[in-house]
TrEMBL record:
Highest taxon of the lineage: Bacteria
Ranges where the Cell envelope-related transcriptional attenuator domain occurs: 125-283
Keyword Transmembrane: yes
Biased composition (Low complexity): 408-421
Residues covered by region (Disordered): 1-27, 373-445
Pfam family, one: LytR_cpsA_psr
Family as reported in the entry's similarity comment: Belongs to the LytR/CpsA/Psr (LCP) family.
Protein name: LytR family transcriptional regulator
Lineage: Bacteria, Bacillati, Actinomycetota, Actinomycetes, Micrococcales
TM regions (residue ranges): 42-66
Bias (Basic and acidic residues) ranges: 1-16
């Protein structure tokens, strides 16, 4: 039986008090001070100044920590959760990361701009997306799962409102119904079983959260090849480049009727246009190496997402972001999980190519996407993109065989992943590919 969950996300922003710092002690203008008194006075001034600086710095750091801590929404404990090891100075996180991002269509606490929450009570995870960062931080894969994909739900999920109640296993269930059935942890378990990997961190975001996060990064420039017209989401964009932030960014990510073939598969391709542009922006403007910018993004995430316990730690969140700072854009792949329509339509199921995606994630090896993509989906080649010049052929350098060190006594050397996974017939793009949204007008709907 489906058990919809309702979560309250009422948040009141703390307002710091404004105080004027006390003035430093001044040396008397009139009268003559003894030499010893002069030096004592100067010493007091210097000491007072240093004290003010130290206290102010500590206060700012304390406020930042308090501000983030008081921004956090109620968290969820994942059964697969484990403590991720971060660097003390909030550098890049050690090792790899598997993070599940879940987009909920719940209208609860979202205002009146998305329909009546009392009438539209469904809680569907219409977006389910895995972020995989390799152990050596050399490549990143972002896997999008179609909302109508049929999956098996394990019999280890529990009722979010009553954790002592274990829910029944299900088969051939649309993935977008799992959040309503068993909450965030159940979605994590379902995707983990599907891929054969552990997923220790996750987060759920609603409409307003997407808008807030797009504002926190300063908007994203997206290319539109043909006009987008979607009366359902209110998305109307002319052909050209648009900087999207807030609600317009949310509308762009939600539109289905206005892109590609009008299907959810087309919407995923359109979302990948946005995400690849976002990746390029975060690297080009130095956001991933800027503590101030990362703080702003972390605050937006903490205040607008329901996070698993470990991800709700601001240090963890920032260290995960820093792990992607130096990844080559061509090694950041946005992949649509391979599926095909079942007989009669209305749902899709994983194809044989899905196993290649699973193995690439399990073995932690980079993927290579086909250069030719289906233009009927939600993205198209940029008509204004300059052709990429071919680099002149170079003689391959002679490489010396690496010297292998014996593992420490009592330990076994972990086999290093080798090669790449060629995903023939799989839709997607890299962050280096500048693609445009394949718009769809009302006349074509």
């Amino acid at each position: 039986m489906t058990r919809p969950t309702e979560r309250s996300q009422v948040h009141e922003e703390p307002r710091p008090s404004t105080r004027r710092a006390a003035g430093s002690p001044s040396i008397a203008r009139h009268g003559r001070l003894k030499t010893g008194n002069v030096w004592k006075t100067i010493a007091k001034v210097v000491a007072s100044t240093v004290a003010v600086v130290l206290v102010s710095g500590t206060a700012v750091a304390a406020y930042a920590a308090w501000d983030l801590a008081n921004t956090v929404q109620p968290t969820v404990k994942l059964e697969s959760e484990k403590v991720l090891e971060g660097v003390p100075d909030i550098g890049a996180i050690d090792g790899g990361v598997n993070l599940l991002v879940i987009g909920s269509d719940s209208r609860q606490n979202q205002g009146d701009g998305f329909g009546d929450p009392d009438e539209e009570t469904a809680v569907l995870n219409d977006v389910t997306m895995l972020l995989h960062i390799s152990q050596d931080h050399s490549h990143v894969e972002v896997i999008s799962f179609p909302r109508d994909m049929l999956v098996s739900v394990p019999g280890t999920c529990t009722d979010p409102e009553d954790p002592s109640d274990t829910l029944s296993a299900m088969s051939s269930t649309k993935i977008n119904s799992v959040l309503s059935y068993g909450g965030m942890d159940c979605v994590v378990k379902t995707v983990s079983n599907l891929l054969g990997i552990e997923i220790p961190v996750a987060g759920v975001v609603q409409f307003n959260g997407v808008a807030a996060l797009s504002e926190a990064v300063g908007g994203v420039d997206v290319c539109v090849a043909e006009p987008i017209e979607d009366e359902y989401t209110g998305t109307f964009l002319e052909a050209g480049t648009h900087t999207l932030s807030g609600i317009p960014a949310l509308q762009f990510l939600r539109t289905r009727h206005g892109v590609g073939d009008g299907s959810d598969l087309g919407r995923i391709s359109n979302q990948q246009v946005f995400l690849s542009a976002l990746a390029r922006k975060l690297q080009s403007d130095g956001t991933l190496g800027d503590p101030g910018k990362l703080y702003s993004i972390a605050k937006a995430a903490l205040g607008n997402m329901q996070l698993s316990n470990e991800l709700a730690n601001p240090t963890t969140m920032i260290s995960i972001a820093k792990a992607m700072k130096d990844v080559d854009l061509s090694k950041i792949a946005f992949i649509q999980y391979p599926t095909a329509y079942v007989e009669g339509g209305g749902a899709v199921e994983p194809t044989w190519q899905a196993e290649a995606v699973n193995e690439a994630l399990q073995q932690d090896i980079p993927v290579v996407l086909p250069t030719e993509q289906n233009e009927d989906f939600g993205s198209a080649t940029d008509p204004n993109a300059a052709p990429v010049a071919e680099a002149p052929a170079e003689e391959a350098p002679v490489e010396e065989a690496p010297v292998e060190e014996a593992p420490a006594e009592g330990t076994e050397a972990a086999p290093a992943p080798t090669g790449e996974a060629l995903l023939n017939g799989v839709s997607g793009q890299t962050a280096a590919d500048v693609r445009c949204s394949a718009g769809r007008t009302l006349d074509d709907q």
